[in-house]
């Protein structure tokens, strides 16, 4: 009798768990529906004494207050995102475009919006994406379009990607002026406005980047990135002055084409169980004669699962453009000339510290607080330009999972 | 104009002479025997947020600044045009 109960009981027990595998419950695919919100605030405080606006000699005092918001909605295989922001720029050097050299800084703003869409294809091995956007400043309007593709084999050990980005820029001033409300003219230094220095006002940029990332082993990930950029149009900045050896001065003049090539190697490694090293080497070459190498490394020390902090540094070496000479360094017979120290032979050094709090906790049923990040860096260039950069960033999300109806999206 | 130090020149010259070899060697090491296939349950470290290749918010802003204050640009930094950056 007891044996009978035991057999019946066992059957009932297994039947119960067999029912737990009902296709209506656990094995039904779920559709991910997630909305991520990221907010970034950065402050950039710069000082130096080689402004290109005043011909390679003069204040480069600049403050930038940048706010950026990023919204990303993932619905099944589709991802939609919008990125927008405003950079408020207070610049002493652009204040010197006019002849009155004042200590008061000129205020400007850069506003930008980018829209992006991506979709997973073919058993989620392929993802295709596209996007468009614009940015506007008082003397600049830029439109951007982008297409891209990404492929990851089933084992997710390697990811290949390709991207093509195109920028179409207009350097005329006037759009944000209440009197004109349309692009009117290029802005030259006030004492050089007696003639038109350039007969074009557009700049086009075509950037093609590709590469792959590879999981090397359980604790190492590497990536190789390759980028080619071609620019044509007005590559000079119309309000940059250049002073010749004979003390006469003109507007900066650079070639109308520029080809750039970049190769990068990134390597992220877990050392032990608590330390992550993020390492990057980049090499750069262009037909203005600039050659550059940068090495950077960031340490992330995980003191607790939710808290991490660590230092970072970056070292950059640049061989300058053949079109560069400092204040009164150019001869009047040269075809191309600039005194913009960004294009000079230089070294830069950046050192800083960041802290991350990643609780990934739910507040309520769907709202999750994922990440809070604080970052400070000090940037120093060999020509004595220096800057402080502070950023605060947080990420939250609304998550919703739905049982898939089996319909194709 | 101020010249960069001898130490930096040595690094630079060595790098310029051997840059192709450096990248080929690194690529070959990565693409061949150094890589091992790992199981999904072994991805705890490689899936950690700190191991992501892309730049976080603060880093992305720094790349933008560097692309303006330096003549070069970083591969995959996403800032290759658009915006004046002339202040």
Low-confidence stretches of chain A at least 5 residues in length (pLDDT < 50)?
11-25, 100-104
Stretches of chain B where pLDDT falls below 50 for ≥5 residues?
none
Which series of helices and strands of chain A comes N to C?
HEEEEEEEEEEEEEEEEEEE
The strand count of chain A comes to 19
User: Count of helical segments of chain B?
Assistant: 2
Termini separation of chain B: 23 Å
Shape of chain B: flat
Count helical runs of chain A: 1
- Classified in CATH, the superfamily of chain A is monomeric porin ompg
> How many domains make up the 3D coordinates of chain B?
1
Please report the distance between the alpha carbons of the first and last residues of chain A: 57 Å
Percentage of helical residues of chain A? Answer: under 10%
The number of domains of chain A is 1
Beta-strand segment tally of chain B: 0
Second-tier CATH architecture of chain A: Beta Barrel
CATH class of chain A: Mainly Beta
